[in-house]
Amino acid sequence: MDTGHLLGLACAVGATTGGAWWCLRRLGEARHLLDTPTSKIRSAAQGYVEFYGVLREQANTAIVAPLTGKPCLWWRFRIEEYQASGKSHSWRLVDSGSSEGWLLLDDGTGSCLIDPRGAQVRPTTREVWRGNLRHPRGPARSGWAAWFSAGKRYRYSEERLHAGQPLYAIGAFRSSGGGRQGLDVGAAQSEVIGQWKGDFAGLLQRFDSDGNGRLDEQEWNRVRLAAQLEAEDRHRQHSQQPAQHHMGRPGEAQPFILSSAGEDELARHFYWQAAGGAVLCLAGALATAWLLGVTRL
């Protein structure tokens, strides 16, 4: 088999494998969205959940989009440079980024803080425009800098989430405070004892009743009883605090999605992408079979 046929075969196998992987992934994500019932923040069970709500501003938090300078709650941007060589031309990515500030979702029954890191964020607000500056908000160039940058073209894109916009969120949910956590007495007791051992001199001062510089079995029993009482008191105080809800990236292979569109629209989009992956897989398989037949391997 010559080099051309080997390269073609490698591309065909890659298309088959990649198409199959993409199809199965998008089908799995669509099923997760449709099979997960919508929950209310106030009564949601701990674990993998989905919410519908509205984005709210947080106190003492001011976020400004980097390319437009517009206030928002979350942003993502891309800066590309136009490159041409002969008859070929393309846009080359020169800079990109996204914000990592937490979002506040309100569904009428409660509020939930969302860590967007690792999420598929799909906002509806998107702006695309072009210019001749490396950064659209950068200072105008003059002198030699202007001469060297003459003729350069850039394409900018910026996506944003704003306060008051609807948001669909699916991910790992957890709550603290509000009496929602049970007490693991053994683990909590061990944690308190571990903290006390960090100041062993203080531990001896409190529990070494005979002053011999060590703790015997009876004195250790007193330590364990005092640590249990301390752990129970800490848990009681923590339970009296208002409940705080958080969502973040699931630990398992489950989708983490934040979207301005609802689950039905997202599922349709994923099904179309899965169909595209299936077509690519089929085309790659047919090409692979044809190349193997031509080369008689």
Automatic annotation (TrEMBL):
Chief location of this protein within or outside the cell: membrane
Keyword hit for Magnesium: no
EC number: 2.3.2.27
Domain E3 Ubiquitin ligase MUL1-like span(s) in chain numbering: 84-179
Coiled coil stretches, renumbered: none
Molecular function GO terms recorded: ligase activity; ubiquitin protein ligase activity; zinc ion binding
GO cellular component, one term: membrane
Keyword Metal-binding: yes
Subcellular localization, as worded in the UniProt entry: Membrane
Membrane topology: Multi-pass membrane protein
GO aspect biological process, one term: protein ubiquitination
Residue ranges crossing the lipid bilayer per the database entry: 270-292
Keyword list, A-Z: Ligase, Membrane, Metal-binding, Transferase, Transmembrane, Transmembrane helix, Ubl conjugation pathway, Zinc, Zinc-finger
Region feature (Disordered): 231-253
Reactions mediated catalytically: S-ubiquitinyl-[E2 ubiquitin-conjugating enzyme]-L-cysteine + [acceptor protein]-L-lysine = [E2 ubiquitin-conjugating enzyme]-L-cysteine + N(6)-ubiquitinyl-[acceptor protein]-L-lysine
Highest rank taxon of the organism: Bacteria
InterPro entries per record: EF_Hand_1_Ca_BS (IPR018247), MUL1-like (IPR022170)
Protein name: RING-type E3 ubiquitin transferase
Source organism of the structure: Pseudomonas borbori
